[in-house]
């Protein structure tokens, strides 16, 4: 029994860089797995006895589990970004090489970097632009253009003008915007001005198909306009 305990104790002796058999200690001074060892573990290049020691710690430590998840996500993101770049032009690839070479950290920076590269910087610019400062997109919805569906950008304040030509005249109309499954996104009441009823969507809409509906004061559906948010 005594012998058994000594063997068990052995792996906990010393928190220095090496343990007795010369293998690199997988737990750093704070008692958690080092970033390097998690990195090699994620890449499948960690050998015994380090592997066993690390897995044992991972079983018990949610902190290190989380860090490993982060590392895995990073590798997955890198892989898919690299795959997406296949077939893209050479200059883009060179930029990618330079950026990935410069990325020695993996905090917010890499997410922003990947997004910027994958979408040519467009997504990043949109993301960094506060919605409040974005001018509203004005859109006239009318039936005279046949079945043509209007398009608008996502997450931009929208200023919808619904054409009421040919409809019974009411002092007020009710308007609402619903998504593809009929969920109401916005509702308001407005009087006609210059042949149109206006509706503001200050928060904009997510990408998808929508309908702007015009109702009489007694909530009778008068007209429906298709709207596609890209
Ligand atoms: Zn830990």
- According to CATH, what is the class of the largest domain? Mainly Beta
Provide the CATH topology of the largest domain. Immunoglobulin-like
Strand content: 15-25%
Helix and strand pattern:
HHHHHHHEEEEEEEEE
Low-confidence regions = 1-23, 104-108, 121-126
Q: CATH H level of the largest domain: which superfamily?
A: Cupredoxins -  blue copper proteins
Largest sheet: 5 strands, mixed
If classified by CATH, what would the architecture of the largest domain be? Sandwich
Share of residues in helices: 25-40%
* Shape summary: elongated
Structural class by helix and strand composition:
alpha+beta
Please, how many helices? 7
Strand order of the largest sheet: 2-9-8-4-5
| Overall tally of structural domains | 3
Q: How much is the average pLDDT?
A: 74
Distance between the termini: 70 Å
| Number of DSSP E strands | 9
What ions, cofactors and ligands are bound?
A: zinc ion
Integer-rounded radius of gyration: 30 Å
